[in-house]
Design brief:
The protein contains 12 helices and 6 strands. It is an alpha/beta fold. It has a 6-stranded parallel beta sheet with strand order 3-2-1-5-4-6, sandwiched between helices. It is an enzyme of class 2 (transferase).
Length: about 300
Amino acid sequence: MSASTQNNDSDQTITGLTTLSKNAQKRILKQQKWEATRALRKEARKEKEKEKKLRKREQQKNADNKDSVKPREPPLKKQKIQTPSSMKVVIDLDFDDYMNDKEIVDLSAQLTRCYSYNNNKAVNPVGLFYTSFSGRLQERFDTRLKEYHNWKNVIIDNKSYLELFPNKQELVYLTADEEEVVLQELDESKIYIIGGIVDKNRHKRLCYHKAKLEGIATAKLPISQYIKLNSRHVLTINHVFEILVDWLETKNWRETLLKVIPPRKFNPDGKKQRRGAAKKNPQLNNDEKNMAKIELNEKSELLGANQR
């Protein structure tokens, strides 16, 4: 085809378009572009189908291997380094007849706390023994707290502590009713006994008399030497246990007592008789309140430091 012929055809096309409306011209140009890109679109569809098939194969492969893929394990909690102590602590449970059913429930909860503290929080865990384990307390554990059968690092025995530890020279029964012998430090060669009873002080001096009848030494914690409480120095079983265990770490009675004893014990306005004492000696009462507030502040600071 000659150059003159090509120019004529081009002129005819342009002339033909120019005789059409603008909208018609746009439609024709759009159709021409569509035809020109047909091959590209076809190639793109093929690539898309290919990718879709690959994704399906991967999904099927993952589904087949689902059981063999191990789930991602959560990060391990930082374990506290424990250095076991050679000291033994006995909780004497020979008081089933002195408690009502609610107190048995409270006792079981306190024993559970002692076990948990010794195994999970204590820096220097002790040898822990629950002796004379029987009666309603054992029944409650067997029916409601069955997991105790899986407890580790604790001896739970129906026998008395004298059957397990016949050498009385090794034994020290801790009781707030002891008036003369006050612990100044713990002897890790000794076996310290805590009375396992919850009685709201109905049976006063019960543990003290039991120890004396059996010819066992008694002692009390040096609470009044280091802090001032607003009530009798009678603590729960788990608090006494925590004090013993924590002292092995701190070797500091005041720090240990402030850490373990609940803040309510320091409440300067907690007792009715203190109101009467305030009328007789207002200055003395204010001094005691100030001391209690100081100890509360120290306890708060100590707890904050331990949490950081």
